[in-house]
Design a protein that fits this description.
This protein has 3 domains: about 150 residues, NAD(P)-binding Rossmann-like Domain (Rossmann fold); about 160 residues, Dihydrodipicolinate Reductase, domain 2 (2-Layer Sandwich), CATH 3.30.360; about 80 residues, Alpha-Beta Plaits, CATH 3.30.70. It has about 425 residues and is an alpha/beta fold. It is built from 14 helices and 18 strands. Helix 1 crosses helix 12 and helix 13 packs antiparallel against helix 14. Strands 7, 8, 9, 10, 11, 12, 13, 14, 15, 16, 17 and 18 form a 12-stranded mixed beta sheet that branches. It has a 6-stranded parallel beta sheet with strand order 3-2-1-4-5-6, sandwiched between helices. Helices cover about 35% and strands about 30% of the residues. The protein is elongated. The mean pLDDT is about 95. The longest helix has 18 residues. Bound molecules: L-homoserine. L-homoserine (HSE) binds next to helix 7. L-homoserine binds next to helix 7.
């Protein structure tokens, strides 16, 4: 049986998890998969004594060239995160004909096109199941189990940190600020939480997922993005009153050659299967032309779930035996000019508006909506104190540009003190 010698770049949460699975499941993988894996080298920035409790000291190196120049190493597993030096190491490994497996969503989403170009030239494999949804086998489901379908929609809860924060805000009525501090104490949120709470992490993942689902490269800048930092406890109370909850949804829709891709806080019905993804859990809901709706659910981060996806890629690469699979689309840096990117998409909207509590206010506001072709489905007056009232309005599907114009029109009405929030609603 051929022995596949692998090298792991990075020995943090994911890298050490990969090492453990390869070691602990070695005999099972040999027996069940016919794949004999052996970790030959581990690249770290500096040698730390605690590493040697997990793996023998002689495995570790601080010099990438000890891996690149080792002809025995045929698979390089990148678990460093971030763009550099990961990008340089991946390019060099691919150029040398080594298959690369990575869990690094940022580097894949930003440099996919150049990695794939080099991989195709050298015949190396390039696999990244762990980049979207951690342990959830979502990319392979799209590429290897849904080929018979045209996928028209992906809806994802694909960031665990924000999902933890939003779940706490919804279920415990806490503010964004106090929930973020709690998430940081538990190690779910980073000291600098920007990448998660501003939605960047979800855009990296949606870029990869939607490109694969829709067979067209959708680079990160094509994705509309809004984070969760502006959400208030009142938004969650309103959502609850209306039978919704708020999720940071990654949304992709395709109709013909028109594609929309966006990440923003979204109200969805409490009965939607995606609402079952609470706390740090992730879920992806797909609609295929033949299979209809499916949903995959699981842990989107953590050592063992992410390592599960990484090792699955390694085994998949071994089974390809040099006949590697690449994307179904032409993977250029820019989006193909055959695709129309939809920025004026249709959505429902929920608005909270602070108004003077006087006669005719509702009629003035509804007139503005009508002028901009926005139709209302629900109107609630939630508070009336000191001559002010808070009005909640939910629209039917409306065009984003019409809605923006309507909001501007409402803001300048004398009876309107302020538009407190505008949150999109996915039906
Ligand atoms: N920061 C990511 C999350 C980790 O919160 O989901 C997994 O990509």
């Amino acid at each position: 049986m051929k022995i596949y010698q692998v090298a792991i770049l990075g020995f943090g949460v994911v890298g050490s998890g990969v090492y453990r699975i390869i070691k602990e499941n070695h005999d099972d993988l040999k027996h069940r998969e016919g794949v004999h894996l052996h970790t030959k080298r581990v690249l770290v920035r500096s040698l730390k004594p605690q590493y040697f409790d997990v793996a023998p000291e002689e495995l570790f190196t601080t010099n990438f060239y000890n891996i690149l120049n080792d002809d025995d190493v045929s698979i390089v597993i990148e678990c460093m995160g971030g763009v550099e030096p990961a990008r340089t190491f991946i390019l060099k490994a691919l150029k040398a004909g080594k298959t690369v497996v990575t869990s690094n969503k940022e580097v894949i989403s930003k440099h996919w096109y150049e990695f794939e170009k080099i991989a195709k030239q050298s015949g190396a494999g390039l696999y990244y199941e762990a980049t979207v949804g951690g342990g959830i086998p979502i990319l392979r489901t799209v590429t290897d189990s849904m080929q018979a379908n045209n996928i028209s929609r992906v809806l994802g809860v694909i960031n665990g940190t924000t999902n933890y924060i939003l779940t706490k805000m919804a279920e415990e009525g806490k503010t964004y600020e106090e929930t973020l501090i709690e998430a940081q104490k538990l190690g779910y949120a980073e000291a600098d939480p920007t990448a998660d709470v501003e939605g960047y992490d979800a855009t990296y993942k949606l870029s990869i997922l939607a490109s694969m689902a829709f067979h067209a490269h959708l680079p990160v800048p094509t994705i509309y993005r809004e984070g969760i930092t502006g959400l208030s406890a009142m938004d969650f109370q309103t959502a609850k009153q209306l039978g919704y909850t708020i999720k940071l949804l990654a949304i992709g829709k395709k109709q013909g050659n028109s594609i929309e891709v966006r990440v923003h806080p979204t109200m969805i019905s409490k009965d939607h299967p995606l609402c079952g993804a609470r706390g740090v859990f992730n879920a992806v809901f797909l609609t295929g032309s033949a299979v209809d709706d499916i949903m995959l659910y699981g842990r989107g981060a953590g050592a063992m779930p992410t390592a599960s996806a990484v090792v699955s890629d390694v085994i998949y690469a071994c089974h390809r035996d040099g006949r590697h699979r690449y994307m179904t689309f032409v993977n250029h840096e820019q989006m193909s000019d055959q695709i129309e990117l939809v920025s004026n998409f249709s959505s429902g909207y929920c608005l909270r508006i602070l108004v003077t509590d006087s006669t005719g206010v509702l009629s003035k506001i509804t007139q503005v909506f009508a002028q901009h072709n926005v139709s209302l489905s629900t109107v609630l007056q939630t508070q009336a104190t000191d001559g002010e009232a808070s009005i909640v309005m939910v629209t039917h599907g409306a065009m984003e540009m019409d809605m923006k114009a309507a909001v501007e029109g409402i803001k300048v009405l004398d009876c309107v003190k302020s538009v407190l929030s505008v949150i999109r609603v996915e039906e």
